Amino acid sequence: MARFAFRFEAILKLRHNERDAARLYVAEAQRALDILDERIAELQQDRQRTREEAGRAMVGHVTVEQLLSRGRYDLQLDAEQRDLVMQRRQIEVEVERRRQRLTVAEQECRKLERLREITAERFEAEQLRVQQDALDELATLRAARRGTAGSGSTWEKES
Q1: Helical segments of 4-153, H only
Q2: Calpha distance 143→131 (Å, rounded)
Q3: Rounded to the nearest 5 degrees, what angle is found at the Cα of 59, between the Cα atoms of 79 and 75?
Q4: Cα separation, 75 vs 80, whole angstroms
Q5: Which of 44, 64, 65, 88 matches a 20 to 30 Å C-alpha distance to 17?
Q6: Which residues, in sequence order, are CB contacts of 92 under 8 Å at separation 6+?
Q7: Contact 115/42 with Cβ under 8 angstroms?
Q8: Phi and psi (nearest 5°) for 13?
């Protein structure tokens, strides 16, 4: 019996490679988001800690220079946090774009895999049909031999 060979196997492998690469790209962008989230959380904690320290420092003798210094530091942390939030939004857009690309790549793989399944089923059905035809022909030949191998033809007996 002949062996099934999917004629688009090379294209299917290419689509699998593209899908795997798209998965990696999504994972990379997601890691970048995670890193930004960690940094934003650190900045929030720094700002909270700075405010708490400023509140404790208000008891007692406080100079204008200390207040200005703490205020500038808080503004610096705020600006840094806003920059990170903007970067995060840009990366979210990139993550979504990469996810869409991954979705398309997965759909292409599924289409080709389904085509391979259908083609394999048709091939197998054709192989079974050819086998059945060969068995039918063999049975017909055997039946014909048995008829001629007997004590004469059935035509001769009736005459």
Answers
A1: 9-57, 64-149
A2: 18
A3: 5
A4: 8
A5: 88
A6: 33
A7: no
A8: -60, -40
Residue 53's CB: how many other CB atoms inside 10 A?
A: 11
| Structure token digits, residue 126 | 């054709």
**Alpha-carbon distance values, 137 to 95, 131, 142, 148 (Å):** 62, 10, 9, 17
Of residues 97, 52, 37, 43, the one with CA closest to residue 75:
43
Residue 17 in domain: yes
Query: In angstroms, how far apart are the furthest CA atoms of the chain?
Result: 139
Report how many domains make up the chain. Answer: 1
CATH number at residue 106: 1.10.287
Q: Could you read off the pLDDT of 56-71 as tens digits, one per residue?
A: 767 777 788 887 888 8
* Global pTM value: 0.70
Exposed/middle/buried for residue 148 (C-beta within 10 Å: 0-12, 13-18, 19+): exposed
Encoded tokens for 58: 């208000």
Residue 102, class by beta-carbon neighbours within 10 Å (0-12 exposed, 13-18 middle, 19+ buried)?
Answer: buried
76 within domain boundaries: yes
Residue 139 in any domain: the answer is: no
d(C-alpha 121, C-alpha 42), whole Å: 58
- 80: domain range? 9-114
